[in-house]
């Protein structure tokens, strides 16, 4: 066990966990931030996507020891009132079915638009390809990313 | 005008005495933190008045509607309350929706599956809304001393026009809650619907998009422990022993023990399909720690003997079920299925003299179709929260079928059902998988053993390798043609491990003078269960691919050929018990023909069509494929759907789009094989799921506009897409696709997948 000072959603938070604990479980079990979801544990499905210094990363493969100096954003901190353009676009297109993968989809989309505010269809498909949606809401996801890009 | 008697479903309209009075029915702590926050809604009232089990109204006019059925993404949590709100005649903006927990005393059929939620909920929910409205009207009549028949309602307002008296529902709610439940109520005319048919956003949308706790995996209480499980590595193996010491020193680990789902004398229900019910539980202080211990635990497994036990079969009668011994292989499955295909099956339906027609046929076409086992792969792995102390249990988890797991819980825990409360979490996907809720029993047994609240979580590998799978199937279709190329007889023989996929009274039965359907099945020890549109999800693809090939052989347009058959079934049906309406069936083909502009496709677009009836609904689909950079790309899918009245159109379209994506994904990639009882894939690195890039570029879902009562929607768009895709790929590549998944064959043709 070791003490870590983490910078999450603009707040400084302390945890005392095993060095190898992935950020996914630090967030979920130790910090009660459960918006970041567990899907596969091997960085294949994207449900656990968070931002590490603005980049979309899979928190299930990210040990706590590797992030101490980084700025972390989770779905809970993407916007103060749930009104990030990506969240608004998701609402407009009523994207979710079961909803489980959507926080990860949104975090991937928000990072994409941060780096590329006007992505082409192909760029959206490439960026979003790592996030599985078992309900098959892919078309709405793509449409929502486009809508959000127009609002940015 | 529709008048309904309230006696039939009376328990839903009468308050249960133990729960009445206080207003707040649900007192579980986690609800306190998840009240709706939408700015559009009214403030929470000071007091709630319960009009019936579905509806309570606050003094300020706010309305809480309980959504009875478990929500796994099919939108019932929004759509069912819309039906209540319509007949209650309230303003949707005033509505708070809460998930009802499992209360069989209060609600009928709290089950999500078989696409029956809206169909079977339709009249009870309308009646519940209309009953509450009638009680509000009666309260107004009494207060104002006027006749109830002169009172009108609209959007949560109540009015007596001639005297000019007005009130909102909240002002009358306390009196209305004391009014007698009327014996009969009048339902709205369909033309007067204001909420039904007008799209409403997902009531959990904001919480989903902001990461609020909604799923049982997100649940946490003070003092809660975490549990991981270890299940047998192969079907056919059972636990011999484990070495507790191999993990006892690891950080955060409290206890390791085994639990078993069934007592020896337990009469299993239809959903108790788990074949090897003993697992090991590891309990500790955090998910990560128990998952680490899981990797280190030393376990010895041994081959299991054959077991037999009483179980409810399909239809409910008790059968003696057998789990055979042995470690099964996909290669031997294929050999055995070929053997069964070659010998006579059980005759499920026979019209005319099919054998005679085949004997004198000028030409016989015979084709065999196969599909593998599939894993459901819900994005939220199986998990459950349980708090069992002494003779009381509270269970909060993802289940499609709380009613069916209750009996399993009772015998496993030895706690009477009155003392077991099952609360329903939103599910991160279901697709049939969570009708089999043994994860709830496992969590409850673990909690009972440690006498503390526990959250049990499967890893993805546990989820993918422990069942419950879609069975593997094969179907052989034969058609007899005379010298003029007329179809004279059709024969289908189909089976699977462990069930036949045949629905003997569905189309094309009824459209052919000479028809034979035979089924067979092979027992297995692999845990199987319902998967989105069970049986239909395979047989539709086989049947509709065969009809496509047959139409080509006969020189007919594939849509016209189907319409001819349906015309026969409509005007002069063959045999009895045909379980479809040929006219509605033809209707969706005609609609998809129009919407897809069938007769004039765009250049370089290869189209395939398919139509199927299941879950009381009719669907026709056209898939357009293009070959782009040596890669098959699904450019567009057109769907025409007749599911009667559509409650929430945009959400219905969303689900239709999802079913099409799901079907294309499974047709291209879905596959689980077995070697010595071990599933061939355990995570998404090997099990290929459809992703953004392979999704169709466009999907259009068109609903037939009619006033029929609603029928199924979650499943019916799924089965036909397999054949529409196969038929479209045939046009693109010149090759027919008989074996799912298609991707390996496309790669053999040097196409990129």
UniProtKB/TrEMBL annotation, chain A:
Q: Where in the numbering of this chain does the 2Fe-2S ferredoxin-type domain appear?
A: 2-78
Tell me yes or no: is Aminoacyl-tRNA synthetase among this UniProt entry's keywords: no
Transmembrane is among the record's keywords: no
Q: Which UniProt keywords apply?
A: 2Fe-2S, Iron, Iron-sulfur, Metal-binding, Oxidoreductase
Q: Which GO terms describe its molecular function?
A: 2 iron, 2 sulfur cluster binding; metal ion binding; oxidoreductase activity
What superkingdom heads the lineage?
Bacteria
**Record's protein name:** Isoquinoline 1-oxidoreductase, alpha subunit
Naturally occurring in which organism (per UniProt): Algoriphagus ornithinivorans
UniProtKB/TrEMBL annotation, chain B:
List UniProt keywords, sorted A-Z.
Answer: Membrane, Transmembrane, Transmembrane helix
Record's keyword annotation contains Transmembrane: yes
Residues passing through the membrane, by range:
12-32
Decide whether keyword Secreted is in the record: no
Citing just one GO molecular function, the answer is:
oxidoreductase activity
Q: Which residues form the Aldehyde oxidase/xanthine dehydrogenase a/b hammerhead domain?
A: 210-305
| UniProt protein name | Isoquinoline 1-oxidoreductase, beta subunit
List the top taxonomic levels of the source: Bacteria, Pseudomonadati, Bacteroidota, Cytophagia, Cytophagales
